[in-house]
Each structure stands twice: as structure tokens, then as C-alpha cells.
Write a structure and sequence with these properties.
The complex is a heterodimer of chains A (about 160) and B (about 180). Chain A has 9 helices and no strands. Chain A is mainly α and about 160 residues long. Chain B has about 180 residues and is mainly α. Chain B contains 5 helices and no strands. The longest helix of chain B is centred in the middle third of the chain and has 44 residues. Chain B is elongated, with a radius of gyration of 24 Å. Classes of the chains: A mainly alpha (about 160), B mainly alpha (about 180). At the A-B interface, helix 1, helix 2, helix 3, helix 4 and helix 6 of A face helix 1, helix 2, helix 3, helix 4 and helix 5 of B.
Amino acid sequence: MNIENQFTELYNTYAPKVYKLCLGYASGVDEIAKEWQQETFIKVWKHRNSFKGDASISTWIYRIAINTCLGDLRKSKRKFQPINESILTTPIDSNSKTSTDKDIQKMYSCIDQLTKNNKTLILLELEEIPQATIAETTGISHGALRTRLSRIRKALLKCITNGK
Amino acid sequence: MENDKLNQLWKSQKDNSNTNTPENIIKLAQKQRNGQFLSITILSITVIILIAYTIYCSVYKWNNFTIGLLLMIVSLVFRIALETISLYRKEQQLIALDSKAFQNYLGKHFKIRKIINYGVTPICFIIYTYGFTLLLPYFKREFSEGFYTYILISGFLSIFIIAIIVAFSIRKENKFYEELK
């Protein structure tokens, strides 16, 4: 398999997950998420020879994605819409399909209130990335990760449900 | 149950990720790399020409003109080299470190950037401007009054514009790093 085909396979496997991760950092702004997703894979291609296989390829790609989003917050501040605080006080409605967009916006508003590290953890978790990979990607021990994730989930659910 | 709600909500988002193709990413990466090579090549050629001209002038006479030219080149090359190294190092860390370590690195990087922005850059700027003023008497003697006035105005105007651009980018950078804390 040549190098282009390998990259295509990697792109097709990880691009949707990287996009969703970036969407989390971009407070749901599609334009920014696409920009960061593109930048991530440009870096993956450019630095493909630097990958030594110390960690798995998925860990390497997620690290690049997260660091790209973390290191480029200037763009985010320029284009992000300010969070509508009133959304947080409206209770979540799981039955109505029309309210899904509002609920998603509410979820992003709550994710935005988390610390950078906690945001990274929950975004990876929501993308159903294995906890071992999350630990390797973020540099947090596996044991501490479980406890933290449980706390973050609780806080996030509380925020989404009660707006606090 | 409650956790499921969160996962369901996350999954209910529309997937708009497939707007780019891997072929396009490769093309963009190559374009970016070519752009970097082109910038380095243009800069290197400019520096070589300026150094060659300085050597050529100094052979005849080592005077304020050659000193001025040398000061301008050295300050400019030094500042650009510092910027390139800083950006290169940041990208190397970005691909190598986990997110926790990268955030720590960004903190250290910010401290170095502060030294560069508030210490090195103003010094380079003063040296560059001083070098330019050393050239002025020679320009006045060699060129017509009209052309000398043009050099004088355009020279200081470009220094002023560069100063504003540098100040603006420093402010933007500071804002970003303050948000990272």
C-alpha cells in the first residue's frame, strides 16, 4: 500500500471523530471545526515521518487534533458567537425533536464552562474513544481518569438539566 | 440513564465532516510546504544580495554606510530567524506532546515570547532604525533631492507601519496566552 492510500485510510477512519472533537472546542461552530480538522490532517501528512510508533496512530492523531485546537484559540475568539446564557435556564426537553438544536447549543454552552483539561476529557469520552487512548492522549493516568470523567459527566448533566 | 442522555445528545449532531478529501489535504500540505520554501528562498536571496553589497562597499571603504547596512541586515535576519525557530519549535512540540504537556509547554513558550516581544523586538527595531539613519547622509549626497525625500518618507513610513503591525500582533498574542492561563 502506498503512502497516499495509507493516508486516505487514516483520513476516512479518523476525520469524522477529529471533526466532532474540534466542534467541541469550537463551541459547535462548524466553520472553525472544519478549519481545525483540515489543519490537523495537514500536520499529520507533513509530519508523517515523525510518527515513530511509540503510541498508537489514533493517539498521535488525537493529540495533534487537540493541540491544534488548543494552540489556535485566537481564531475561535474571533468567530465564535457569544454564549446565550438564557438557554442554560431552559430545561432540557428530550421528547421534542425541534428542541434538539437548542439542547445541543445548551450542551456546548455547558462544555464551554469546563476547564480546558476537563473539556478535552469529556470530548474524547463522548466520541467513545477508549479510556486507555484518552489517558495516553491527555497524559493523565488511567486511574485518575475514571474518577474525573465521572465527575465531569455529573457536572455537565447538572448544567444541561438545571442550567448550573 | 442520565449518561445516555448526554451521549444521545452528542450523537444527534449532524455530521458535516466530509466536505474535504484526503487528496485535497495532501495538495494543501504540499502548497503550504512550497510556500514555506519559497519564503525562505526569497529571504535568503535578499540577505545574500545585501551581504554581498555590504562586502562590496566595505572593500572600498569601511564607513558609516556599511555599518548602517550591516546593522539593518543583522537586526532583521536575527529577528526573522528567532520567529522561524519559535514557530518551528511550537509545531514540533504540538505533534510530539500529550495535551497536558503541550499546555505546560504553551506556558513556557509564552514566557519566551514575552522576552522576544518586549525585549528583543524593540532592540532589533532600534538597531534597524539607527542603521537606516546612518545611510541617510550617503543617500542625500548621492541622490537628487526629490529621490532623497522619497527614500526618507517611505523609509520612516514603512518602519512606522511595521511597528504598528508588530504591536498589533504582540497584543493579539498576549490576549491569546492570557486566555490560556
